Hints:
Bound molecules: 5-thio-alpha-D-glucopyranose, manganese (II) ion
Distance between the termini: 23 Å
Helix content: 40-55%
Structural class: alpha/beta
Amino acid sequence: MDPFDPTPDDRFTFGLWTVGNTGRDPFGEAVRAPLAPTTIVQRLSECGAWGVNLHDNDLVPFGASAAQRDAIVREFKAALEEHGLCVPMATTNLFSHPVFKDGAFSSNDPKVRAFALRKTMDAIDLGVELGAKTYVFWGGREGSEADACRDPRTAVARMRDALDYLCEYVVDQGYDLKFALEAKPNEPRGDIYLATTGHMLAFIATLARPQMVGVNPEVAHENMAGLSFVHGVAQAMEAGKLFHIDLNAQKIGRYDQDLRFGSEDVRQAFLLVRLLEGTSGTERYSGPRHFDAHAYRTEDDEGVWDFARGCMRTYKILKARAQAFDADPAVRELIAEQRDAVLEPLCKGYSREKAAKLRAAALDPAQLAARGLRYERLDQLMMEHLLGVR
Length: 390
Ligand code: GLT
Ligand code: MN
Ligand code: MN
């Protein structure tokens, strides 16, 4: 078997909306016919994926009756069972219906906010029924163009009210579910509140049950803001808050492209996989590797599965490259941690005594500054591993 072909052990997931994307964009119609959710389940399992994620309305159309809902869910569960796929994550569509044109939880209209809460409680029930353990919140419409319409502080406070409310709902129902907040700086709104993973982390600390809530960073979304995705994810991991991740690719400064994982900025993709897999000896991310991306508009149905296999294969190839990089003695020597048994304890945990000793220590800035750090050599070694010649 090809070592880079995906298997369920890799915990790769796709959304129904990702491989099911029909190629519609603001300038053109769909280029592919919609795929039935049960067909997606079958095809994903044939490709070696582990799970499938969904919005409520990816599966159950908006406005369906209770009987229709139950019939659809029954058929979907049978397909999951037959093809051995799970549903690790679910979410709510709070952006497609025109009722959400000025946001859901942050809307100025309490009727819209009430409708959004009700829709989300129903969608949480659906997700839990399908086995989801993580519930994503992407506030795509929680933003503004005419900023005078609402004080942004009010918007943030309303987002807090909604998340606190829904955390209590989950606890009250006895569900085993945690929330993952997904940031995006803009699109479809002119500006979206809580624009980056860093904003989200600060916001989570203000919630009533912060332990239930983490983040779901997306490559494209941090890139759109011109930020280092790897740094954002690392900060989330360091805080114990990386509950989920949306993998894709994106050129900096563009609209949200949601490209095949690793197809832009291979260096960042390599560093991301290295971080998630902990190949340098750090703690490994254990959650699903979710691809929130879609095939180019040039593709037919076969191209969609080429796209899906490409996401997973690139992840596995980068993982192998990262393992080789971190096992390379030349690399290890260059990044070996410098230790100083005297100074290190003085730099950690302030006391007057430590500060006095620190002040008295012999430190020569000119000598420290004169050293070359060999990062050119290190980065070139990374390039050579990445390009497959080492
Ligand atoms: C939508 C968005 C994604 C979010 C999804 C979850 S839906 O496609 O572009 O980034 O992760 O709501
Ligand atoms: Mn996403
Ligand atoms: Mn996106």
